[in-house]
Amino acid sequence: MEGQKTIGIVGGGQLGRMLTMAAHSLGFKVIVIDPSDNCPASQVGALQIKAGLYDGEALRQLAKLADHITVEIEHLETKILKKLSKSNVSINPAPETIELIQDKYEQKNFLQSKGIPVAEFKKIDNYDHALEVLKDFGGKMLIKSRHGAYDGRGNALVTSRRVLQKKFAKFANRELYAEKVINFTKELAVMVAKDIKGNIKTYPLTETVHHRNICSETLVPARVPANIQKKAFSLVNKTVKHLKGSGVFGIEMFLEGEEVLINEIAPRVHNSGHYTMNGCLTSQFEQHIRAIAGLPLGDTALTSPAVCMVNILGERDGPTRVKGLHEALSVPRTYVHIYGKSPTKVDRKMGHINSVGDTIKQARSRARQARKHIDI
Amino acid sequence: MEGQKTIGIVGGGQLGRMLTMAAHSLGFKVIVIDPSDNCPASQVGALQIKAGLYDGEALRQLAKLADHITVEIEHLETKILKKLSKSNVSINPAPETIELIQDKYEQKNFLQSKGIPVAEFKKIDNYDHALEVLKDFGGKMLIKSRHGAYDGRGNALVTSRRVLQKKFAKFANRELYAEKVINFTKELAVMVAKDIKGNIKTYPLTETVHHRNICSETLVPARVPANIQKKAFSLVNKTVKHLKGSGVFGIEMFLEGEEVLINEIAPRVHNSGHYTMNGCLTSQFEQHIRAIAGLPLGDTALTSPAVCMVNILGERDGPTRVKGLHEALSVPRTYVHIYGKSPTKVDRKMGHINSVGDTIKQARSRARQARKHIDI
Asked: Does A211 have pLDDT greater than 90?
């Protein structure tokens, strides 16, 4: 189409793929930057600039071709994005927000400075300092890489001097900080959208379940009392108001007793929001495209009483072969989304399943049953 | 992905485009046959064999590359499809079904032979014969081309000898038949899906509104008494049982007093089923892909009390430019789907709007309000 607007996405993995589909429905053209051949987004019609996410030249090229730039991941070049945001292209969320979130320690500092409760944390300057912090935290702490960490990569639980020594060797040359271990009873998450005027729409409160630090299930709506819901939404709204730029944000939280603590922010669509594709009036992907393209936000209401998302993680290393789709789709009110990635790898995110139901128990049982059938 | 199954679609227009999106979500690869450069399906990642829909060589090529073949339109080469269906590729719906539906006169004969009520109709052999039929039908009838007609093209209302003469000249060299004019109070439609085992799932009964013979609105659920609903579903089930092959079928009906008559069958996803994208648990596009790929059917329940679909038809001839998206999306619970076609032409199907609401009145008012804002 002549005069068709173009959305540029930094990253063309599964999030870029699902964003691309949503953008196409609204009549946009899509260009992604991604280093992999035949990346998931390019398979669904995104044009691909084959380059790494820190490639300044690729970013400049994208800015020339696109009307709106967004990201599917926060680990990317922000200095050039900042410069480009002064040109004709809109960049959302704001590169400053991405930069803030890239550094987990600065993210915590920021949250704390705004009066938002987070787990106790401390910067670690060196091994001796880390030993002190371990003592302060009662002999147990998490050490985390400040940069480039996701899905638990770059995090380690430290319970002794010996473990600390080992982890320090492993994380050599990485900037670290320490976090007190939270005895949480649940992990909660909320997807929240902000348009370019600052209007905010929140999706329902969800429970997330992690295995080996990777999100494995999302249960919606979260089974928590009304006062906890209220606390969570109040924190989420407060947090998002302070984040510059439009888009969808994923806010992960811990529930510890009656307290809600913010764990971390994703400045983008998020795994814990995949349930919206079959569970809400507007999917997080369409919502993000609306938000970054300067369009009004869609309704976030649930369309079924309960939804459960289960990730399809790889269970072996080798070429991808989707098996069991027939059996999985024979489960009532169950939807399978495959990302087109190959090869499969242990714990690689290959797809997800959404099941809806009258209760969480029913939706979860459906999604788990379907998951068992899929071999990828 | 290695070992990825491929869906072949004959036709890559808006229906092929939305089928492609649904197929990608389920992990399929898609190849379409379409004669137009940059056809709507190819824009969303379908590989395109650039050829006409009657091109036998292209069909044979598609059969070599695809595991499952389906169609987005019934006006295509069926003889070769019939031969190919004896090879390794599955073709659905059955080429015999497509062939039957291609000839509107044979379609009516078939329905009548199965005891399904249709408007009175007669074959027209020549002008003199047509004059007789006009007399029999009380001086008023529709003449219709037996082949290649859709969206009212190839149909004409005849109310006098003079009009008949004129239309006969216009339709020279086309095989014709005549239909008694029905004084319908409503036009109804149902999307219905059949899997390869013959299991049937029906979507809700809808009301369709046509302007200049083109579907302009679909209202769901239809505002008719329970006995009419029952009659309609009974006819739809009876009809679909007689159609060979799997897939989604669109069944259009007339309501005349207390009688329901079948008007025509589309052996494919259909404009009157576009509301399912934002109104039902499973869209007609995912449903069709499931059906033709031998997968179990999804649930067809509504996710909102009422849905209204309004077509975005071109209003001028020229390059496509989407305007008013912001205003349209500011209408509550409203979704816009753009097909990526250019140029725009008067009455060309450029996109559609789905609005959901608590009542038909509310959903319709939303969709119409949004439609007014879009200039394409």
From this structure: no
CA distance A112 to A216: 28
Residues B115 and B289: beta-carbon distance below 8 Å: no
Residue A266: φ, ψ to 5°: -110, 125
Question: In the prediction, which pLDDT does B271 show?
Answer: 97
pLDDT reported for residue A151: 67
Report pLDDT digits (tens) over A90-105.
999 999 999 999 999 9
Nearest to B301 by CA among A176, A305, A179: A305
Note whether A333 contacts B45, CB cutoff 8 Å: no
Strand pairing class (B121-124; B47-50): unpaired
Q: What is the tens place of the pLDDT at every residue in B179-233? A: 999 999 999 999 999 999 999 999 999 999 998 778 799 999 999 999 999 999 9
Place of tokens 């906890």: A228
- Residue A195 DSSP SS3: coil
DSSP class of residue A273 equals: G
- 3-state secondary structure (DSSP) of residue A112: helix
SS3 label, residue B210: strand
Q: What is the distance between the alpha carbons of residues A192 and A201, in angstroms, rounded to a whole number?
A: 6
Q: Report CB contact under 8 Å: B333, A281.
A: yes
The distance of A329 to chain B (nearest Cα, Å) reads 6
Q: Say if residue B202 is exposed, middle or buried (CB neighbours under 10 Å; 0-12, 13-18, 19+).
A: middle
Chain B residues with CB under 8 Å of A44 CB are 21, 24, 44-45
pLDDT surpasses 80 at B149: no
Q: Is the pLDDT of residue A357 over 70?
A: yes
Distance of CA A17 to the CA centre of its chain: 14
Instruction: State the residue for tokens 């039902």.
Output: B280
Closest partner residue to B26 (CB to CB) among A295, A325, A356 is A325
Strands B214-220 and B206-211: antiparallel
Residue B120's CB is within 10 A of a number of other CB atoms, namely: 15
Closest CA to B308 of B223, B192, B213: B223
Interface test with chain A among B39, B325, B362, B374, by most A beta carbons within 10 Å: B325
| Cβ-based neighbour number of residue B164 at 10 Å | 21
Compare CB distances from A44 to B45, B295, B351 and report the shortest one's residue. Answer: B45
**What interhelical angle do B14-25 and A14-25 show, nearest 10?**
160
Q: Round to whole Å and give the CA distance between A358 and A302.
A: 12
What phi and psi values does residue B223 have, to the nearest 5 degrees? -90, 75
Mutate to test the interface with A, among B17, B18, B24, B201 (most CBs of A within 10 A): B24
Mind listing the pLDDT tens digit for each residue in B231-241? 999 999 999 99
**Residue among A278, A283, A262 at smallest CA distance from A363:** A278
Please classify residue B21 by burial: count the beta carbons closer than 10 Å to its beta carbon, then call 0-12 exposed, 13-18 middle and 19+ buried: buried
Mutate to test the interface with B, among A5, A17, A325, A353 (most CBs of B within 10 A): A325
Interchain contact, A303 vs B298, CB within 8 Å: no
Report whether pLDDT(B2) > 70.
no
Q: Which has the higher per-residue pLDDT, A231 or B174?
A: A231
B248 phi and psi angles, rounded to 5 deg: -95, 140
Residues in chain B with CB shorter than 8 Å from the CB of A29 are 43
Which 8-state DSSP code applies to residue B188? Answer: E
Q: Are strands B186-194 and B247-256 parallel, antiparallel or unpaired?
A: antiparallel
CA distance B105 to B114: 14
Give me the residue from B5, B325, B340 closest to A1, CB to CB: B340
Candidate from A24, A330, A342 with C-beta closest to B44: A24
Q: Which of B365, B41, B9 is nearest to A45 (CA)?
A: B41
Instruction: Give the separation between CA B70 and CA A162, rounded to whole angstroms.
Output: 63
Q: Which of A147, B175, B328, B58 is nearest to B50 (CA)?
A: B58
Work out the minimum CA distance from A342 to partner chain B, whole angstroms: 5
